[in-house]
Amino acid sequence: MVYNTSQGIVPGKINVHLVAHTHDDVGWLKTVDQYYVGSNNSIQGACVQNVLDSLIPALLADKNRRFIYVEQAFFQRWWRDQSEDMKKTVEMLVNSGQLEFINGGMCMHDEAATHYIDMIDQTTLGHRFIKEEFNVIPRIGWQIDPFGHSAVQAYLLGAEVGFDALYFARIDYQDRAKRRDEKKLEVIWQGSKSRGSSSQIFTGAFYAGNYEPPTGFYFEVNDDSPIVQDDINLFDYNVEERVNDFVAAALSQANVTRSNHIMWTMGTDFKYQYAETWFRNMDKLIHYVNRDGRVNAFYSTPSIYTDAKYALNESWPLKLDDYFPYADRINAYWTGYFTSRPAIKGYVRMMSGYYLAARQLELFRGRNKSGPTTDSLADALAIAQHHDAVTGTEKQHVANDYAKRLSIGYKECPLLNISYCPATEVDLSLGKKIAVIVYNSLGWKRTSVVRIPVINENVTVTDSTGKVILSQLLPIVNASIAMRKFHATAYMGESPSASPMYWLAFTAVVPPLGFSTYVISSSKSSASIKPISYTFDGSQNGAIQIGPGDLKLIYSGNDGKLAQYINSRSSVNISMEQSYSYYAGDDGSSDLINFQIPLTVFRGPLFDEVHQMINSWIYQITRVYKEKEHAEVEFIVGPIPIDDGVGKEIVTQIKTTIGNNKTFYTDSNGRDFLERVCNITDSASKHCFAYHNISNIRICVDLIMFSYFAKIRDYRADWDLEVNQPIAGNYYPINLGIYIKDKNTEFSVLVDRSVGGSSIADGEVEIMLHRRLLNDDGRGVDEALNETVCVLDKCSGLTVQGKYYLRFDPLGEGSKWRRSFGQEIYSPFLLAFTEQDDTWTNFPVPTFSAMDPSYSLPDNVAIITLQELEDGTVLLRLAHLYEVGEDKDLSVMATVELKRVFPNKKINGIKETSLSANQEREEMEKKRLSWKVEGSNTKQDTDLRGGPVDPVKLVVELAPMEIRTFIINFNSNLVKYRLYVGTVPAGSMGKYMMFISVVEGRNIG
Ligand SMILES: [Zn+2]
């Protein structure tokens, strides 16, 4: 039997685009490698190698068959294994359009828990591979599984990579119902108010809320949909029936879709392991459905579908903002994962900042093809952006696999956060010295306090000029010592030998794209100032004032609670309160955690610390620096107790007197801030939260919250929200920060990793720090989110240590801190250590900057990529950090002088590319489809972009929120810094550490 599968679009008919696809999670229930090779099948019968192996002959069997492939992490694993003949065959299938790469990143990244720099990096990695191997540029975004969709995805990873459309499945069920009614599932989404119409992209949300075929059209070997049985000599002939089913499903979808084109997503998770069964049935359906003639069916791809929609020349509704939070049905908000696995989230963010810095160093040294490169870290980080990786929605063993991959990329004191760093735990009394090299990956000079654990108390710190500088010692408190011992033992399999006594803190001043060296040595008496400590046990009256500089925090003497924030420079004086509470995993009720007294204060010249043992499993250190106007809060939460049989989600709430009128702002993937509105009434929420521990009010929490609040209409920009989860339904992802404001003051909280947060009551900011749950959510993982750490057979719940930062500013002044300091949080100082004996006096080059010493990037610009590519060219990305109207001074066109960024290199050629660096920008703009928006005849706003770069002047202009990507060719006779990378044994553990020093700059040529 020969089936006619050659049909294309038929005008005037309902055209059913059959899009054959597989959704291959880059880790979820199994690890990425297990999914690829098909091992561990008792968990899930899934083998991506089978998918790709069986796909090729199935496509070759009929030139009308088409397939899309998405996840490059899997494709690359497969590609490496193929013969030259097979590679030629695949190239032929790609060139003919039978096999199309869609999305094209290493993974289908998450959109809530990811930072935009990571999203760009992992997309670039995949896109450049596709370009190099196939000379192909993916046209379509395909984010079919992530749990809600971000504005940054639409405009940066959509429009700015040159995509013509973006498709996804998961939007809130109430939103989807309304969009179906109004035929508004397909819209023009404008994700950035600063970028205006240039940020628009055509987007389609799938009508059924998933990425699967219509019911009854699954054709994997073991699926139970009826196959098309068209052999009249056999029993169960069912062609009419199947055609009728097909037509009915097509009509019901066409009823909620604009135009007569509909898309069927023919596939789902790990399907096509025996591709022929799918294609055999689709061949028959196409043949018989078209013979029937009521609708028109054919093999298609999202590109063909998009072109068909575009060809209609229609106008589409406009969508602003984003698609968060996501509920797939009543009481099912997917907002807990904004915080799930906070340790992995913190680790991903830390490695992300390190990867940015490591590529800079790799460039300065010269990419070493034979030696270690940043490539394995690039891969590990890319995979970690997957929507079941950094999200925390994977099984525990898979989470461990992501962490293991990341750990391979970083060796220098990975446990420094818990005061474990053998390289600095050296007895200096015997004349040894420790050199600390502090690298700054930002484009501007930076001053921050550095802390390292030391054994001796009589130490001095000298700077790059040999001058003794002010330093401060802090005792390592008991809570930290216990944590250090337990986790260092868990990490190494044996307990650490040395025990540092102190944190040594000093202020490092480091030039842009450069480093400074500090030397720590012993002295007769300590040059470092030991703190004066005070303990307040609650019997004191009056206030305790903290802070050696302009910023003072005032604590109440009798209950030890934070009460006031005073900044004498900006004249902000505001009352505040901080608390911890938890939501119970079983019923969502909330319980306040009482602060325990005493609190201990350590005062020093650089900063003051307030230590609070909140309860037996929450420890908090608040720091106020002399030179900074924000407070830094370090929290240690865990092990979360579960002996009462109740899982818990731990939140901190900061209450202020700001009248934010239900409105707050959260970032989109660390980039644009979006306005959020919370509509829980003040009195109601206070009622339930402040007095919940009185037993009769518990009824309020359990019953009234759900019945009473259910009557309140909450707010979404696009539809009238029926509120059924007043907390979860008001949670949003936070990657940079959250802020609230009234007519006088702004209050901002910045975070060091992805978290969930909200402003549930006026004046209040809440962020969720940790969660430990005892029940699976029934969405496939089949494990409770109950993370533990084990030493031998002794396991306890995971303890999470992290930081958040808070600051008040007069209205209109907060963004300077959010943007500049936010960039510093993303790119912390990178520390390297080496140990020397006393014959050694100084570094050959104790301080260094790759940039012109008199130059610095403007305050509103960051270098988000600086990387030598395999062919020796250099990838440079510059990002304007401010939105239109965000700051009166900095929301303006910025300029960067490349000659001064690279003073020792001659730029021979520079070309601007798309965001993922796989095509020239100009080409991309020419090709991109320009869609019409309903109700506007012309592009309504000016497309504000920096002008072309003059190859002689080499000045780059950046408009607010603009990111520009360049490939630069430096003169082959360029000056390369010779970075000596040596290894010296460090510490008693015999581990090795990396020691990087620039000793000279010279011509290599
Ligand atoms: Zn998935």
TrEMBL record:
Keywords: Disulfide bond, Glycoprotein, Glycosidase, Hydrolase, Metal-binding, Signal, Zinc. CDD domains: GH38N_AMII_LAM_like (cd10810). It catalyses: Hydrolysis of terminal, non-reducing alpha-D-mannose residues in alpha-D-mannosides. Residues 332-406 form the Glycoside hydrolase family 38 central domain. Binds 1 zinc ion per subunit. Its EC number is 3.2.1.-. SMART domains: Alpha-mann_mid (SM00872). It comes from the Eukaryota. Its cofactor is Zn(2+). It holds the Pfam family Glyco_hydro38C2. SUPFAM superfamilies: Families 57/38 glycoside transferase middle domain (SSF88688), Galactose mutarotase-like (SSF74650), Glycoside hydrolase/deacetylase (SSF88713). PANTHER family: ALPHA-MANNOSIDASE (PTHR11607), LYSOSOMAL ALPHA-MANNOSIDASE (PTHR11607:SF3). Belongs to the glycosyl hydrolase 38 family. This is Alpha-mannosidase. It comes from Rehmannia glutinosa (Chinese foxglove). The lineage of its organism: Eukaryota, Viridiplantae, Streptophyta, Embryophyta, Tracheophyta.
